[in-house]
Amino acid sequence: MLQKAKTLDPGLMVRRCVACGYDGALLRGGHAEICARCGCNLLKRPARSYAEMEGLLGQPMTLDEPLSSPRRQERLIHRWLVFLFLTAIGFIALLYLATATFSV
What we know:
The protein has 104 residues and is mainly α. The chain folds into 2 domains: 1-62, no CATH class; 64-104. It contains 3 helices and no strands. It has helices at 25-29, 50-53, 70-103. The longest helix has 34 residues, at 70-103. It is rod-shaped, with a radius of gyration of 27 Å.
């Protein structure tokens, strides 16, 4: 996704502490084990840039299943079947009400 971008603000690429937002020189080199400002453990929660947090670099960090998984396709089919069933029920109810109105 990032490769398709024409311009990118350099501020989006600066690594910051995830806890406090500190973007000092120690974080840029990746040599610090703890944040100099808040003491956050950078080995457990590494400093990341806004572009990384928003998924512009590398794979997005989602727990959702892939688009082509069989389970997702099955859910999509079930949703369409429920929609068609409810539409048919609504049409039958409307038809019943219309015939009841005109038969009186």
